[in-house]
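Notes to self after the call with IL:
- keep both proteins in one doc
- input above output, always
- annotate only the second one for now

Protein 1:
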Amino acid sequence: MNEIGEQLAASTEAAIAFLQTVPMFEEIDSSCLRSLVGVLERVQFAPNQQIFKQGESGHLLYILVSGRVHVHIDHLTLAELTPGQAFGEMAVFDSQPRSAAVTALENSECWVLSQAQIHQVIDQNPAVAIALIKVLGARLRRLIGLFATAEDLFALKAQA
C-alpha cells in the first residue's frame, strides 16, 4: 500500500476529509461519511492492470485514492483520472454493462463500494443522489464536447 492509502486507512477522520474532496460526496454530512468509511474496501492495481473491461457487468463504484487511471474505449481516451475522482458509477445505477474500460497507468489504490452500499447511502442521505447526477451530467457534457470536436475534425478532413 502506498503512503497516502496508509494514512487514510489509519484515520477515520482523514478518510472522511478525503471523501469530502470527492465531488459526489462533498455535500454529504460527516456522520453519513463515517458509516461509509467503515464499509469501504481497499483495492490496489499495478501499472497497466485492467480494473474493468468495457461490456462487463458492473456493481462496484471506485474512488481513486492514489495513482492515475485511464478511462477508454479501445484506444480512444475518454479521461485520465487522478486521486479524488470516482468511476464506475454508471453501471452501479443502471445495471447495464460497463460503457468503457479502465486501466491503471501507475500503481493505484481505490476504495470500492458495492451497488447495495451506494443504495443504502442514498437512502440515508438523498443528497448523494443529487451529487451523483451532477457528476454524471458533467461527464455527459464533456463527452458531447468530445464528439462535437470529432465531428468538426471529420468535416475539416472531408473539405481538404
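Protein 2 (the one to annotate):
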Amino acid sequence: MPTKTRRYRPAKNVINYVDKTARIGRNVKIWHFAYVGSDTVIGDNVMIGSLSHIDYKVRIGDNTRIEGCVYIPPLTIIGRDVFIGPAATFTNDPYPKSKRLAGLVIEDGAVIGARSVFRPGIRIGKNSVVAMGSVVTKDVPEEMVVIGNPARVAYSRQEYEKKKEKWETSPETKTI
C-alpha cells in the first residue's frame, strides 16, 4: 500500500474524480467517470473500471482489478489479487438510513462475479469465488465457491480451477 499521498494524474482524455486525500499506488488505472472518495488507499497495479464508485475510507490491495459499474461503500477492505466483476454491489447499511455502518472484508485472491450483491458486515474468504448474480447474505468460507440467492457453497476453489482449465483448453471454446 502506498505510504505517502501522491497526486493522481488521469490518462489523457479520461475524466474521473479522485479526492485529494486519497493515496494512490504506482501503475493504477482509473477509467472514465469513476469516483474515488476521501481517505481511500489504493495499492499498486490496481485497475478501476469506468463508472465505478469507490467511496471514502476504502482500502484496496495490490494487483486488484475492479470492473466497471461497481459500488464499493465506505469502510470496505479489499485484499490483494482480487477480481471484482462488472456491476457488483457491496452494501454497508443493513437498516437504511442508519447512523451505524458496517464495512465488508474481501480477502486476498477472491473472485467476485458480475452483478453479485453483498450484505453489510460480511467477510469473503481468501481465494473464494462468488458466482455471477449471487446474493451473499453471510460470510463466504476460504477456498470455496458460492452460488445463488441466497448464496450457498457449491464446491471448492480447487474444483473451480479444474473447471476453468477444462473451459480454457476445450476445442469448442472460442478465444479472443
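Annotation: The mean pLDDT is 92. Helices lie at 157-169.
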